[in-house]
């Protein structure tokens, strides 16, 4: 038993001693309801105006279906790219000391801080056929701007910090003695990584990748400029919602939105589950 | 943190090569994928020299977009600061059932696409929305006007400050506050004299991130704004309008303002983190790591 436990046994557990519970709880619940819960409910209620058979009609329309296919595939590929390079970058930032490391570390947060519209037009300019990067890709027959590939590039930009920032604290906490022990026993670096480091990082890696995926699904600003938004080819789901809204098809927009919300909430469950596993592992170690 | 280097006796040529290759790849990836877009913004903005750059920024539509962006942030950020403080107080100072559920609900806006965040307010306040007819009867506009843009922005930035303060206040516990209470201080006084000084840097950190997102928000605001030039345009929306008109210098000049905001935000964030290491890694932008042990009670 540690000191904390002894203390909490000695003192009777005190609840609700401090004043202000009613006020702050009331305020929290009211604000949360007015701003988040009731508005979100509006999407469900509006979508509910349509009978279930019509739902399928809306969701299985070729244009909507194509958008879902693109959004999910592109987000998945972008998240996987992020998981590979995010792991590499987190590793380098935590384990190595080199000039410019702190600057690089701050740079990782850029996609969070840079407004998405700015990222969108900058990426489009870079990857356009005459852009700094696009001009090298064009002779190779690779076109990024205004294709599904452009969507992936934008989503990979947006998602990188999720993986890096989730991995960094876990990597920093990793017990290097285990690695040293394995090394002393003759394990090669690749084996040490595969058998010791990677398993310890896996929950954090899954969490970060799932977060990047979840963010990518709903991303709008950085994508619409570079995607070209060709129906059936490079149109993402948020844009489909936007289009329906502009045509005053409120109920149809709400149906697509509700389906997306359900997808996002499912992702939230996965992320929370992975984080819980991570926490348990963390606590078991202590 | 001193233990950054490799294992002893690991300076063989192979290991050295591996390390250089890893660092090189990471630097190259960050330079090409993150730094280059940032540089592009400024290069494109100044492509035709300083004259057209200033002209684009001094344009009356650009100025009104700046005003709009500042106004929206000036309303949304304080709203969420008050909420974040109240929510953090409730969660960190009392025990009650459903605390985990409340935390999940606070996180909810992070999981919602910006376009959907805009959509839900159109469904309520739009011309064909729930309150639409009533609003038009009273000649009060929410959608395509400031209130709608504030609502959408506040929704998007909803969890930022709460997410920052909750773990901080949980880690500090309630002993200090209870001591103040036993000395006869009232609730408001306890908060002001005991709690606030303890969390002020965390609060500032949260406000910083919340403000960056509020000023930069695009999707949600785009849905509710109606893109009325000189009236409901924010800086990010102004960027889009100019870009769609092939006015690239104007678009990138406006974008450069937002890029500078991002750079200042990152600089201040790094500064705060180096002075107050306890803030580091607590929250990353709009990620919601529940990796903090203090969260799990």
Shape of chain B: globular
| Low-confidence parts of chain A | 1-13
Largest sheet of chain A: none
Distance between the termini of chain A: 13 Å
The count of helical stretches of chain B stands at 13
Number of domains of chain B: 2
Give the mean pLDDT of chain A. Answer: 89
Structure description:
The complex is a heterodimer of chains A (286) and B (297). Chain A is mainly α. Chain A is 78% helix and 0% strand. Chain B has 13 helices and no strands. Chain B has helices at residues 13-45, 50-58, 60-93, 99-107, 114-125, 132-137, 146-156, 159-172, 175-182, 187-216, 219-225, 235-244, 248-275. Chain B is globular, with a radius of gyration of 23 Å. Chain B starts with 12 loop residues before the first helix and ends in a 22-residue tail after the last helix. Chain B folds into 2 domains: 13-45; 49-295, MetI-like (MetI-like fold, Orthogonal Bundle). Classes of the chains: A mainly alpha (286), B mainly alpha (297). Chains A and B meet through helix 2, helix 4, helix 5, helix 6 and helix 7 of A and helix 1, helix 3, helix 4, helix 5 and helix 7 of B.
Q: What's the short story on this structure?
A:
Chain A is built from 14 helices and no strands. Chain A is mainly alpha-helical. In chain A, helix 9 (148-173) crosses helix 11 (189-218).
Annotation keywords:
heterodimer; A: 286 residues; mainly alpha; MetI-like fold; 2 domains; 14 helices; 78% helix; globular; disordered N terminus; B: 297 residues; 13 helices; 71% helix; disordered C terminus
